[in-house]
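testing teh design pipeline on a random one, pls ignore if ur not involved
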């Protein structure tokens, strides 16, 4: 049992340059599941410590592992807000269902997450563009070599202070279309936020880096014809008279940022569509000067403008120095809402107290 009284950290001194995900806050949440003991046990918030697992823990062998990522912000009026946490809670449970892992009670999940952030609020850096990244995750812990869904799990939430994704300002990034490998297939696990998807996609990232590109744009697994998403971001393509993003069809992660971008574009009366976009359409639109900009969306970077897109021998350059106009506008709008600088007209923020 955990009888220690946890004290709020008073002051934290953080390095100037925060490398993403390398520094962790003082506490974490741990909750174990044991089917033989009736399911979930009492959640505990405690000092961050090493966990010990049996070498036969099923996560090591059959990969039942999933995660989420969201952020808490110090808002301009001195409060703490989480951005659309209910979406991440819902998505974690969808991912859990796909991997035959247990559901986490949404209310308990939210309450405990808020309690943890409140306790470790000193870890939210009070600097522009900074936030506290929240990482809920779950793994199978039952020791067994049998191939089946495990009967024991560990659900955890960790916190990590993060700086702005682009410390030198909003810079566009070069992206390479990869068709030598695929990331995810419809009815597979592409729409679930699971560790295995990342293990399978690292090789594309390595190839792209090798050629001087920061990220990979994945194509559909069946025909390698339609664009799907970028690394850990969804993708948007701005044509002259339309902004399009691939429709969710089972292989694409339903991003919370994606959904928010679509809503904001609707609010602004843009012609935003969710549809199949072939890489050939992108190439021909680029050649016809119909393609204005391309950008990615995700919790970590919020909006990421694309400087150039490489597909086979074709290099489509938008601007290597200047981020796209709409990408900048959307980034300002989303971060403006997150830091409480502009009205939260869709009630996306959940405040702590
Ligand atoms: C997490 C993730 C995204 C972005 O989702 P957000 O909820 O916007 O952070 C996009 N694609 C993949 C593969 C992801 O894992």
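output:
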């Amino acid at each position: 049992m955990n009888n220690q009284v946890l004290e709020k950290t008073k002051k934290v001194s953080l390095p100037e340059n925060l490398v993403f995900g390398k520094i962790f806050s003082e506490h974490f949440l741990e909750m174990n599941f044991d089917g033989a003991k009736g399911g979930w046990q009492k959640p505990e918030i405690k000092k961050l410590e090493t966990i010990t697992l049996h070498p036969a823990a099923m996560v090591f062998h059959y990969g039942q592992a999933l995660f989420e990522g969201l952020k808490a912000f110090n808002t301009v009026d001195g409060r703490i807000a989480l951005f659309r946490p209910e979406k991440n809670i819902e998505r974690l449970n969808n991912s859990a269902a796909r991997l035959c892992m247990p559901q986490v009670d949404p209310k308990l999940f939210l309450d405990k997450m808020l309690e943890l952030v409140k306790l470790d609020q000193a870890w939210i850096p009070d600097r522009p563009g900074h936030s506290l990244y929240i990482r809920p995750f779950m793994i199978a812990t039952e020791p067994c070599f049998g191939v089946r869904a495990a009967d024991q799990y560990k659900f955890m939430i960790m916190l990590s202070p993060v700086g702005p994704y682009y410390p030198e300002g909003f810079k566009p990034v070069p992206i390479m279309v990869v068709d030598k490998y695929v990331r995810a297939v419809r009815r597979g696990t592409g729409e679930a936020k699971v560790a295995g998807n990342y293990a399978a996609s690292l090789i594309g990232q390595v190839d792209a880096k090798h050629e001087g590109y920061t990220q990979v744009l994945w194509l559909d697994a069946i025909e390698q014809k339609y664009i799907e998403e970028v690394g850990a971001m969804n993708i948007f393509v701005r044509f002259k008279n339309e902004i399009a993003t691939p429709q969710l069809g089972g292989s694409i992660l339903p991003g919370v940022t994606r959904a928010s971008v679509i809503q904001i574009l609707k609010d602004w009366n843009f012609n935003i569509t969710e549809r199949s976009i072939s890489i050939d359409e992108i190439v021909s639109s680029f050649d016809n000067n119909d393609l204005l900009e391309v950008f990615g969306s995700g919790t970590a970077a919020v909006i990421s403008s694309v400087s150039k897109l490489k597909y086979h021998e074709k290099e489509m350059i938008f601007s290597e120095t200047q981020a796209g106009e709409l990408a900048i506008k959307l980034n300002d709008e989303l971060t403006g809402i997150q830091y409480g600088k502009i009205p939260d007209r869709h009630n996306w923020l959940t405040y702590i107290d």
